[in-house]
Amino acid sequence: MSFQDLVKFITQQLVMRMHESKEERKAKQLEKKEYRPPLSYHAFGSIPVAMSIAWKNSKIRARLQRSK
To answer: How far, in Å, CA of 27 to CA of 13, rounded?
Structure first.
């Protein structure tokens, strides 16, 4: 991608953004925030999430075995 193509793309995006109403921009921003992944996943990847799921499952299994 040449520099001229990059400038053209950025200009198109800016013009499109300027033509959106303020309500549309706010709605897009709120929608984007709603679908944000948890901080542990976002910052460190899927390993902490997998570890937390495994930890919760082990607690549930231990509780079920104690109740038998």
So the answer is: 18
